[in-house]
Amino acid sequence: MPSTVSQVAPAAAHRAVEHFQSALEFETDCWDVHHAMSTGQQDFVLLDVRSPDLYARGHVPGALNLPHGKIVESKMAEWPMDTLFVTYCAGPHCNGGHKGALRLAKLGRKVKLMIGGATGWLDEGFQLKEGPAP
Asked: Which helix (H) or strand (E) holds 98?
């Protein structure tokens, strides 16, 4: 009798490549964001899309606070259209990062989600910074 893992056959390799490649077009992770930022290779704008209060309690250093509900065309005008944005929220239990990414995509912006959010950042052993948005 097959296990619950193998009851549904795995996808063919070519389909798995398509699936996982596609996922990486939409997502990045905390380690990759940290590495890019700490090595001077940051080619994206990191957006903490939580409330200003939650941002002040602890955010990824270098992240800008822009709550997902305030992502509108007029606020995004200061960045060129080809700017890549990376959104995050509290963690895997929060969909604010997805909401922010969706709003950016609807505005024609390039966007990825930092999976794990602030919780994932801490899980990787990185520190959050306290303080209000500048």
From this structure: helix 96-106
Residue 92 pLDDT > 80: yes
The pLDDT-based confidence of 1 (bands split at 50, 70, 90) is confident
- Residue 59, CA distances (Å) to 9, 25, 30 in order: 41, 24, 12
Only one residue has tokens 């990062």, namely 97
Q: Provide the residue type at 120 as one letter.
A: G
Q: Please tell me whether residue 90 adopts helix, strand or coil conformation.
A: coil
CA atoms of 98 and 112, how far apart (whole Å):
9
Strand ranges inside 13-132, DSSP E? 27-29, 45-48, 64-65, 84-88, 110-115
